[in-house]
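ok trying this again, last paste got cut off
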Amino acid sequence: MAREFSPLEKIRLEKLEALRQRGIEPYPTRAERTHTSRAAIQAFEAVEAQGGEAEVQVTLAGRLRAMRPMGKITFAHIEDGEGRVQLFFRANDIGLENLQFFNRDFDLGDFIQARGRMFRTRSGEVTLWVDDFRMLAKAITPLPAAKDEVVDGEVVSHATLSDPETRFRQRYADLAVNPEVRAIFRKRAAIVRALRDFMDEHDFLEVETPILQPIYGGAAAQPFITHHNQLKQDLYLRISFELYLKRLLVGNLEKVYEIGRDFRNEGVSFKHNPEFTQLEFYWAYADYEQVMALTEEMLAFVADRVLGRRTFSYQGHEINLDPPWKRIELRQGLLDATGIDIQQHPTAESLAAAMQAKGMEPKPGAPRGKLIDALLSTYLEPNLIQPTFLYNYPRDISPLAKSIPGDPQTVERFEGFIGGMELCNAFTELNDPLDQEARFLEMGRDYDADDEERHPMDEDYLRAMRYGMPPNGGFGMGVDRLTMLLTDQHSIREVILFPHLRSRGD
């Protein structure tokens, strides 16, 4: 069924038809541009600074963002990927009919091409004095609701968009009218580039591992399941890169990393999206203490590169990424936050009773590890504002980490927290294939089939380990959460171009 156009869209369709009746194609095959808006302004200012009288002739292209007709002249603004520049149209130069044509048949949101010379207005704005223009693409649907702004003493209307629901569902419109949103995603790209540069400079090899996997693993999460028709085989979208990256250590690739997408069939929240970007690395002959030091160095490097400083504001808190970060043993952190010493409660039943005694409501039947995780996320994590490492975790929620010597129930694992949010997770990796097999069996036995903590047996991974895996330290970090921190965004949806949303009407 054909879409019904709105009254405003019908008006624009009439204008589109009027263009064609004049012999003007509203969507021409070719466009011309000699300068971006920024380059044109810089070229003019360079000539101006030298006191020269040479004209700076340019051809610009961009989206119409403001129009201000004033009799026989019109001021307008166009915006391209680098900024905004003013256009000046005068009937004496382009003819009254062409000026009226522009004012009548061009709308906010249209893409246009304009040629002329750069000059500075009496109010001081560097502007293009237009001697020729043409349509590049007619916008049929108006950009979101107009907002008035005073420019040079005149009221100018231009598009804006603030409703979060609409912004996330129509990110293209959000980007088109909100330059601060474009800035977030430019900064995100800079963050990824800085992470890659840091890893490369430290002799890590960037690799790519399978997204479709016959067995999922490497994290505590429910997978998405798909099916390969020809192979008649169920496959899983990866929840982690870990097990494949560690296979590469067996093959004598000693320092490897990957930046890419993971997929977890979990709830959506301000810090969770089913599809997200991770950095993971694995480092032969290193342990979790060395990984802690490298993490501090890496985050400081990224901040220096992207922000030009190591301090930044996040949700009203001034964060300082200078090493060293604060270090708190998990047991002590929970004791300080809740008054419960998890070491004194070696079983789920004992720990649940201790939580109930404190007025908490533990999930009935939850394993001990999940109870500890609930204590951490509820009572400790929100208060970890400055960069902090929590370390030494219970074995039963860390099945891929190596136990602390002399304490088989505690493993060498840390998580990094900033701004009251978990940012990264790392282990001294388990490389004993017999111990790993026993843990896989234990996780399969002690957890329900639909429990996210349940890890399936991966025989090929165990086979790789049996060839011999060097001792190593591993690390995973959410790139989206790092971007949230460095752009001061509370919601992960603000830093993912197309976040997952419920269907309309759900």
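PB: full thing came through this time. The CA atoms of residues 130 and 168 lie 36 Å apart.
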